[in-house]
């Protein structure tokens, strides 16, 4: 077979770019319990709460403790009756976005994810 009968396949074009080490994100903070790595110290602190029984955010009304302040904020709505997440299809309101999301899936006749 001579070279003129072989199919011509163009060579892939490789764009120059940074060295692989420059594109690899730095993750300098590591969990001493499970080894998971984090880019920011604040993310490591939040994660580390999973490994402890500490619940530093206490409800001033009932004393229930929470690991994260956002969980306390949602819980406080159970005492105040606040339901800031409103359904656009009906008059129902929900304490958190997850409740609204489940409701919207029910309205559409499909299970929530």
UniProtKB/TrEMBL annotation:
<feature type="region of interest" description="Disordered">
    <location>
        <begin position="1"/>
        <end position="25"/>
    </location>
</feature>
<keyword id="KW-0677">Repeat</keyword>
<dbReference type="GO" id="GO:0005737">
    <property type="term" value="C:cytoplasm"/>
</dbReference>
<dbReference type="InterPro" id="IPR050331">
    <property type="entry name" value="Zinc_finger"/>
</dbReference>
<keyword id="KW-0804">Transcription</keyword>
<dbReference type="GO" id="GO:0005634">
    <property type="term" value="C:nucleus"/>
</dbReference>
<keyword id="KW-0678">Repressor</keyword>
<feature type="domain" description="C2H2-type">
    <location>
        <begin position="57"/>
        <end position="84"/>
    </location>
</feature>
<dbReference type="Pfam" id="PF00096">
    <property type="entry name" value="zf-C2H2"/>
</dbReference>
<dbReference type="GO" id="GO:0008270">
    <property type="term" value="F:zinc ion binding"/>
</dbReference>
<keyword id="KW-0863">Zinc-finger</keyword>
<dbReference type="GO" id="GO:0010468">
    <property type="term" value="P:regulation of gene expression"/>
</dbReference>
<keyword id="KW-0479">Metal-binding</keyword>
<keyword id="KW-0539">Nucleus</keyword>
<feature type="compositionally biased region" description="Pro residues">
    <location>
        <begin position="9"/>
        <end position="19"/>
    </location>
</feature>
<keyword id="KW-0862">Zinc</keyword>
<dbReference type="InterPro" id="IPR013087">
    <property type="entry name" value="Znf_C2H2_type"/>
</dbReference>
<feature type="domain" description="C2H2-type">
    <location>
        <begin position="29"/>
        <end position="56"/>
    </location>
</feature>
<dbReference type="InterPro" id="IPR036236">
    <property type="entry name" value="Znf_C2H2_sf"/>
</dbReference>
<feature type="domain" description="C2H2-type">
    <location>
        <begin position="85"/>
        <end position="112"/>
    </location>
</feature>
<keyword id="KW-0963">Cytoplasm</keyword>
<protein>
    <submittedName>
        <fullName>Flt3-interacting zinc finger protein 1</fullName>
    </submittedName>
</protein>
<keyword id="KW-0805">Transcription regulation</keyword>
<dbReference type="InterPro" id="IPR056436">
    <property type="entry name" value="Znf-C2H2_ZIC1-5/GLI1-3-like"/>
</dbReference>
<dbReference type="Pfam" id="PF23561">
    <property type="entry name" value="zf-C2H2_15"/>
</dbReference>
